[in-house]
Batch of 2 targets.
Target 1
Amino acid sequence: MRIGFKLVLVAVMTVLILIPLAMVNGLIGERQRYRDEAVADIGRMYASPQTVSGPVLTVPYTETVDAQEIGSDGAVRTVRKRQTFAWTFFPTRLDASGTVATSTRSRGLYHVPVYEWAGAVKADFDVEIPADVPGADRIIGTPVLGYGVADVRGMHGTPKLVIDGRDVALLEGAGVREDPGVHAVLAAPASDAHFALRTQLDLKLAGTQSLAFVPLGKQNRIDLKSTWPHPSFQGLSPWQSEISDTGFHAQWQVASIATDAQRQYLSRQPSYVATPSGMSTARDVTLPTLGVLLDDPVDAYTLADRATKYGVLFVAITFVGFFMFEVIRQLPIHPIQYGLVGLALVIFFLLLVSLSEHIPFPAAYATASGACIGLIGFYLSAVLRSALRGTAFAATLGLLYAALYGLLISEDNALVLGSLLLFAILAAIMIATRRLDWYRVGGQLASSRTI
């Protein structure tokens, strides 16, 4: 068998191994979808990820305006008619703070972080009602102070709203926007009036995975504390944050001009869609938010998916090692033996996924890699006709698995580590074969096959 033909055969075997690798990758995607369904199911039974917006003060009014109408004869006439409008006022200062108490809920194999936020939303308003327009016959309606809550099922107990030191009753819905939330009805002001409001909403809000706030105030301060040790901050980075094994404390201080939230609120109304469970969730909402995601630092499916992307590299390196044994030690290795070892490498990823669903990912990785390395080392002791060679090959494979684990847990440095690994492997092959006469080796391989 000529050396060129053998190289082509090894390349074909490597490509064929991509088929079971793709099947394992598809299995990982399927398990991820099952996990996402479990998250959604827990959200339906408990509460979905929460976003809190507001408060926003809306003051409706009606007045007489001149409007153009086309008559039955096609002529355009100016008529006077009454129309309804509204003024929208945002807080001059918005302060949301509280403690996020976390726990986990399980659905089958899957565990989902849930929380209860015991907090307060404080807001100050400085309102200037425009003066009457002569001839408009303006009538000011009932003002509404509205708070948006993505999933009102998460409100535990009865929220308490205090305005200027007085308790105010809360009603369902966020007010004139008809979004999920709560609102309060205030006394109608007079035209050209100037007044200030100091408001505070105390509530306990449960949700899954994430908690976010829309910074609608002119000045916004968000302060969150929790015992969750692995937060992932969303939106703008916190102004100050402390993260340790015992939890985190994060604080945002943001001005409205840095988020554009007020303009987006006025120009685009968020829409909500009903779900089979009866809750409403936001859809197509682009309002900026600040908050935290209760992240899983070791997402087994994400890491397993990343690991399979290196699968073809593992197979190629292993097959190159086989080929080098053939060339240097003159040991004939059959294509079926290439294929069996390649399948053993693929089984590693399947073991990794299945074990990580039951035990921590590091333990699953160690167990799966140890089993495959042991199997391959035992098999190669016979294929390479030496227990020492089989052990040495297995030890080399163990170094590769260790390098892969380093790539998985060092996402930020994965590219540089992977580049250095490939460089080291290529350098080792070039150094080992620097004095090899490939023409002579090819002739020897061909003659050994014909004996």
Target 2
Amino acid sequence: MFIWGVPWHNGCYLKMQRMVAHHSIVPDIRKGVKTTPGRILFIDDDKTGREVALFNLRRAGHEVTSASDGKEGISLFSPGTFDVVITDVKMPGISGIEVLRRIKKQAPEIPVLVITAFGNVETAVEAMKEGAYDFIGKPFHRDQLLLSVDRALERSRLATEVKELRVKASGVERGIVGSSSAMKRVLEIADRVAGTDATLLITGESGTGKEMIARRIHVRSARAEGPFVAVNCAAIPGELLESELFGHAKGAFTGAVKDRLGRFRQAQGGTLFLDEIGEIPLPLQAKLLRALQEKVVDAVGGDAPISVDARIVAATNKDLQSRIRAGCFREDLFYRLNVVEVHVPPLRERPEDIPELVLHFVGELAEGRDLIVPPRVMEELTRRPWPGNVRELKNACERMVILCHGNEVSLEDLPALSDRLRPEKAPSLGNGGDLPSLPPEGLSLVDLEKKVIESALRIKNGNMTQAAAFLRIPRHVLIYRLEKYGIRREA
């Protein structure tokens, strides 16, 4: 085996490292080679050759993660984690060509460099057809490797800039404000699934920003340059929704004077956002399920199915499990939509985001005025429950900006709390009594928590979302408690 044109044999790797460190074999890797630090995934089953390449890449300033075979490399890769992938072709198990295919399927924009000691014209052609950025045959000089990596990183950077400019020009994305741990978790999940084509279900109360999450997922996906089409299923009468979604042929019904594409076909190559999916009439749900499974739509009055290629992101503020039990929503459609669930917590569960949101909205709405939000006003805003969530908070900020006379908003500028938001007498627990006084002999905290959860479920008629809100905990925490204590959800 030859590395850098010199014979390779067992035991010479450490000696070569020492010689490289003293600049006695090859010229300095930084001379004549422009290096841009990047995150690189290097996949090669040849341990010694891999370590030499890692040494040179890291010495050039790159952050490198290594994998010893194709299976490990694929498990380490996820969209957004690496800027460049370098893979050997001939490896046990999963070949480099298969690695290339899978990475390109997940993240088409990531440059993949293919290296092999078994190179030939056929392998090079196959790699290029599969989308490889460059093909390097072993043995290769370190400067050749670094130069190829640098060019790949530059191409990746330019492609990212072009994509960001196009997305910005489209006006699709809206900035999401919030640095709480709850929102960080939401955005982390959203960004992880954005690079896939999986169907998503975004859940959360009205006004939490579900559409903004959907837009973020779209602009971070491979479909970012395609259209983002939003449909509020609750705002369209049931008898018109089928035509709105799937389109219709000319003459299909009275008033159909020309063909209509429908929202599925308008979203071709992009993302279709179906808001308030729980409001779709039951008869139409079967057609929606077919469109999702078969990737075809049947236009009203059309003669044949029409192929569509749009990613579906749905959202709801309803408890679809309860609607399934009530016979109002198809269970098979729910599971088809809920491949990945992204739950957006209500504002009352992340009050630490309120000051940041207030400053953002006031600055955005003040139109050049330098308004100050004093601590007493911020404390009052943080204390309020905000049942309308971020939407309600933004409306309150707009009111403050409009009514503020000077350069400092005041408590008088805030909207008054409605009667329904004022403190009420706590509902009774268990058999109708108020919270019990603590007995002198002590009590089981676990038993008390179980009784509180069971009572909350009874008060809310088994509605999981409402019971979680009543208990001031996230829905997934309530589900965990139910499973932990063996409480039936119908309690």
